[in-house]
Amino acid sequence: MIKRINEIAEILAILNDTKRGKDWLMQEVKKHRLKSQVKPSMNSFEMLKVLPNDFVSNLLKGLRGDDIEGFEDVQTLTKTFHWFFTDIVAGSNPKIPTKDQVRKIVVLNELISRTETFGKRDPASTVILPTGDGMAIGFSDSPEKPIRLSIELHKLLNRYNESRSGVEKLLIRIGIDMGPVYLVKDLNDKDNVWGPGIILTRRVMDLAGDMNIFASARIAEDTRKLSPEYMEIIHPIGDYHIKHGEELQLYNIYGDGFGNRIAPRSKKVEKLTEDKLVKPAYNFAFRTIDIVLDVTEPSTMLTHHTWVWKLENISKEPKEQVHYIIDGDKEREFKDLNVTVRDERGNSLEIVTVDANKPTHKEFNVKLRNPMLPKQTKTLKMEYDWEEPDRSFYYRVASDCKEFTYLFSIAKENQIKTRVLRVDAETGYRVYASPNPVVKYLDDKTIVSWSKTNLKSFDAYQFQW
Fold first, then answer.
1. What would the mean pLDDT of 391-404 be, rounded to a whole number?
2. Global pTM?
3. Which of 107, 115, 140, 212 is the most buried (most CB within 10 A)?
4. How far apart are CA 433 and CA 320, in angstroms?
């Protein structure tokens, strides 16, 4: 009897502290379908007096939280999925009306449902998790499915965006990874998942920019071995910082009609190695940069590239070498690019090392005829031939530049769409650059020119035609 009185007294105290009364007690009785002498006219104390002992004891446990004990034990084994995680870029931007944001979510869901990979999925081996302005989809039967889904979705999305402009465009970012998760029941008694697999996939996606498809090394490296097609479209881009001081090696997936070759660099791990002692970003400032593109074979967009740098040594030591980085859309060996570098006197300079000779990415060092002293300036002219089938050229300034000039030429009979876009190196977001490019039509050529002053380190631009 004393135990029951103490339990009733503690229940009444908790009810008072939590602003609950006899109405709440009546609901609990009805919820448990308890047959008792409880009447609506009774107060809380009177109700508790007539309720069964076991009910009063369990009610107190519930109010204390004691009945949760043991529920937290995970009784299931993990299951490994290959994850696709996407969301809408600027999906919660307060400047975009809520109705327009919701419209984009509806469109994204519809486009995902129209992809072949999603349509032919095996429901028994697929997990689908809406995430508000995006979607996480796990496939347990194939590491290729997240990649195929991403490519198919991008192609549908590009067609959708063709007739839209500005904020009307639907831009997304995608992260792909693989890993184990626990299957957990949510409050609606539906399967949900949690674990390192989906957590790291979200972090991969968070590193992506506009229309990037990023994949972790552990899924990308295995998939690249499956076919030559995957080798061509899955590109290593280095290590990136994620939470808790960790680093993640990433791959960028892009090709004809999908992905975005330009990857954000804000969280990229910069490893200081000896070769950086010759890189412009660490030793030189640009007085001027002149970029000249001449399309010599329009059918393949074979383009003769000329870069003229007027450099100033801003370090405290003489410099004997200069580092170059060039990229292209077509896979080429370095020896096939006809790379030449000359100084202001026309002297041919020696390419002393080729540090990277990847199919679409080259890095090399050029030895100067004479060491470049601190505060001394030199003009270097580098030329090479590489196809630009995407009709796009990306250039990122390695160090501060006082004056930048771009000049493009192509045979007049070829139609072009001239655009100069400024690229945010952190997010990959692109906007039209100012001033507008100038287009001139000569007898046999179309000439496009554009110039800008006082560029800062790592300013980036994309030139389209």
1. 91
2. 0.50
3. 212
4. 35
Dump pLDDT digits (tens) for 172-193.
999 999 988 887 766 666 667 7
Contact criterion met (CB below 8 Å) for 88 and 153: no
Cis peptide, bond prior to residue 435, ω within 30 of zero? yes
Rg of the chain taking only CA atoms, in angstroms: 31
Q: How far apart are the first and last CA of the chain?
A: 89
Closest CA to 7 of 52, 60, 54, 58: 60
Q: Supply 399's token pair.
A: 């160090």
The C-alpha atoms of residue 244 and residue 214 are separated, in whole angstroms, by 20
Residues in Cβ contact with 367 at an 8 Å cutoff, skipping those fewer than 6 apart: 320, 321, 349, 350, 352
What is the rounded CA–CA span in Å between residue 409 and residue 169? 30
User: What CATH architecture is 79-253?
Assistant: 2-Layer Sandwich (3.30)
Residue 343's alpha-carbon distances to 288, 314, 360, in angstroms, are: 15, 19, 26
**What is the mean pLDDT of the segment spanning 222-250?**
85
Same fold, 79-253 and 274-464: no
- Left, alpha or beta for 358 (phi > 0: left; psi -120 to 50: alpha)? beta
User: Check: CATH 1.10.287 for 274-464?
Assistant: no
Nearest-angstrom CA–CA distance, 400 and 193: 48
Distance, in Å, from the CA atom of 85 to the CA atom of 129, rounded to the nearest integer, reads 9
The two three-digit tokens of residue 170, written as one number: 């639907």
pLDDT score at 425: 62
Per-domain residue ranges for the chain? Answer: 2-68, 79-253, 274-464
Amino acid at residue number 200: L
Query: Nearest Cα to 327, choosing from 387, 266, 410, 400?
Result: 387
